[in-house]
Design brief:
Length: 519
């Protein structure tokens, strides 16, 4: 898919110097001719009030009132998410117009824009249209800029066209024809929009990588497969990569992580990737992703129903891969370290048993009361390992608790941090990227639930506030740096008919890094 930006102030006419771009044969001088000369279709927004503005008004004039007549007839009432193709349009270069309902103008915010954009892409992808001129990013989205709108539209389109066919013996051929999108923006927004288009593509590439890794089954996406992926990523994007195996983890005294992998036939892989976009001395942001490639629960075996979805228990790791890829593609000027503790959680004669006590790399002893609370057991050692990078900040990302889904459902990731500044940055990034997160408590009062009669700490805190006690457990290993934890159990994948990985929270994490790099 090819994306480009063209400046066109519809109401003020052509930007200076742009007449050069007027296609041959098109009636010159008008914005309508300038922008539609080479496309199969132009996408125009219509608000419920049905007063045409901007591009729609201009195209209406060029087509001798066609849009007005369609709207008057009631065929397009501007209702949010509705679309209407007008075929065989004459008077402009494009042969078709796609009208898209934008809803009520005073309610036209981020959500309404997203709905309209997705409806437009869906309509277009169902046709043979190859090239399209897209004007919706010029509509005034409340609290958002045109470059934001361009980026959001690209990410939405790439989300609509994403397919996971690797595991089919005969993959269905790609159905749509769409190849090229030209975004029309006001001349004043052109520069920012071009940068935003690059960001959108890099973000979508990162999300696709995260989605692919998430969707792969556990027998293919093993810890070893994640290690191979890291090495390939490092080669393609000039990252430093190091993979530690069992022996090295033993030498590091990662007794907690090793207790999780004990029941598995697959060897653990502790993956460390480094992207250097700033000076060698600049303190890095460290991203730590839970990489349980299958979580059976171990001896505390999970119920059978829906257990297949525990192949997604490495989505935190996948988001670290995707974010690093995107950061490298954009050449962000900061240093980022990605740490992925990868292993399986399986039952067997060698598996860790409930009641076993293990010693973490930090020296703290942990009573494993439930072997299904394994994410925190691999993360705690990875968080201790992170200290050696003297990080500016550490963010861990994990499909950590079912309790987080009970608390927040599937829209918002849970954000836990004692550091208000870091939490604020991540929440800002989540809003900007439309990848929402909600701040949860992590007060010391909850630590009491993790009391163990036999070890320093227990690995579970009972049913009340399960996602909070999980975060409190992790906090005990993060005293050395500013730290935040994202519980993505509810947001990393979808169940049901649309079962599949979402690529979240790559948008949030990338935005966080973009904002940090700009500081
Ligand atoms: N990977 C799961 C969390 C999970 C469950 C994510 C369901 C998405 C959907 C995690 O390892 C786990 O099993 N957590 C337990 C913790 C409990 C034993 C304290 C849970 O949430 O039930
Ligand atoms: Mn588990
Ligand atoms: Zn798990």
């Amino acid at each position: 898919m090819d994306f480009s930006i063209k400046a066109c102030d519809w109401t003020k006419g052509l930007p200076k110097g742009s007449t050069k771009g007027t296609p041959k044969g098109a009636s010159t001088g008008s914005p309508a001719a300038f922008l539609t000369g080479k496309s199969d279709c132009i996408v125009l927004g219509v608000f419920e009030a049905q007063t045409l503005t901007g591009a729609a008004l201009e195209i209406d004039t060029a087509t001798k009132g066609l849009i007005t007549r369609v709207v008057k007839a009631g065929d397009m009432q501007g209702k949010s998410g509705t679309t209407l193709f007008l075929p065989e349009v004459s008077g402009i270069g494009a042969s078709r117009v796609l009208l898209v309902g934008l809803g009520k103008q005073d309610a036209f915010g981020q959500k309404a824009y997203g709905d309209a954009v997705r409806a437009a892409w869906r309509a277009l992808l169902g046709t043979k249209i190859v090239q399209v001129t897209f004007t919706l990013a010029q509509a005034p989205v409340k609290g958002r800029t045109a470059d934001w709108a361009v980026r959001a539209a690209i990410v939405a389109l790439r989300g609509e066209t994403y397919q996971f066919t690797q595991m089919k013996s005969k993959p269905e051929p790609v159905q749509h024809a769409l190849k090229r999108v030209v975004f029309s923006v006001d001349a004043a927004d052109e520069k920012a929009a071009k940068a935003a288009a690059k960001e959108g593509v890099a973000l979508a590439n990162g999300m696709d990588l995260a989605r692919d890794l998430g969707n792969l089954p556990g027998n293919v996406c093993t810890p070893t497969h994640l290690a191979h992926t890291a090495k390939k990523l490092a080669k393609d994007w000039k990252l430093k990569v190091e993979v530690l195996g069992t022996k090295q983890l033993e030498a590091l005294k990662m007794g907690s992580l090793l207790s999780v992998t004990r029941g598995s036939a697959q060897p653990p892989q502790f993956i460390v990737m480094q992207y250097q976009g700033a000076g060698a001395k600049a303190a890095p942001v460290v991203l730590v992703g839970k990489g349980i490639t299958f979580d059976s629960g171990g001896i505390s075996l999970k119920p059978g129903e829906g257990m297949d979805e525990m192949k997604y228990d490495m989505c935190g790791a996948a988001s670290v891969f995707g974010t690093l890829r995107a950061a490298a593609e954009l050449g962000l000027k900061l240093n980022v370290v990605g740490i992925v503790p990868a292993c399986e959680n399986m039952p067997s004669g060698t598996a860790t048993k409930p009641g076993d006590i293990v010693t973490s790399m930090s020296g703290q002893t942990i009573e494993v009361l439930n072997t299904d609370a394994e994410g925190r057991l691999v993360l705690c050692d990875a968080l201790t390992y992170a200290e050696r990078f003297k990080p500016a900040a550490v963010v861990d990302i994990a499909t950590l608790t079912g309790a987080c889904i009970i608390a927040l459902g599937h829209h918002m990731s849970g954000l836990f941090s004692k550091d208000d500044a870091l939490a604020g940055e991540l929440l800002d990034a989540s809003r900007e990227a439309s990848d929402p997160a909600w701040r949860m408590p992590i007060e010391d009062e909850y630590q009491e639930q993790l009391k163990s009669n036999f070890a320093d700490v227990a690995n579970i805190g009972g049913r009340p506030a399960g996602s909070v006690t999980a975060a409190c457990f992790l906090s005990r290993f993060t005293e050395a740096y500013p730290w935040a934890h994202l519980d993505i159990a509810g947001t990393a994948w979808k169940s049901g008919a649309a079962k599949g990985s979402t690529g979240r929270p790559v948008p949030l994490l990338l935005q966080f890094l973009i904002d940090r790099a700009a500081q």
